[in-house]
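Lab channel / #folding
Pinned by the channel admin:
"Please post every new chain as: sequence first, then the structure tokens as a reply. Keep commentary short and put observations after the output so the thread stays searchable."

First post following the new format, from NK:
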Amino acid sequence: MSFAIHMGGVRVAQDVDNLLLLLSVVRHGSYLGAGAALGISHTTVSRRIAALEKSAGARLLVRSGEVWEPTELGREFVSAGEDIELALGSLALDSGGVGGSVRGVVRVLVPEGFGGVVVGAAIRRLSETHPGVRLEMINAARRARTNLVGIDFEVVVGRPEVSRNEAFHLAD
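Reply from TO:
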């Protein structure tokens, strides 16, 4: 990987933040979605991704229909972002200390109607049973993609034509 994080204060924090932002763009498929999830404008997302690509010396994202997909180098950066996210998630930053219980983030990509009705109720039950688990629901009206980065499972309408993932029928 040609990207180097410069040890020295602000630069490291910016690079880490931008790697996590890249991860969010890939997960949401758009600058607008990533910005909404993070509470920043899509123009800020665009500017920060451009800065990350300038540091990398190459494009990290390419347009694929309606969504942004990582390039080959972009997938390496996304992987680094996931490693950082995992490391940050392993820190006991909450004072409540969930102890030895199950903890982490589960991300699900769902059609809007299904997500609001079914997944919303599941999120409530899950948070009551396992307070250390955070379920993130991303609403999307699109077919299954082969390279879902950072998505743990996806619900689609119709039969998915994705060979690398396990698929099963939920309901009619």
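NK: Residues 27 and 56 are 20 Å apart (CA to CA).
TO: also worth noting, The chain has five helices and five strands.
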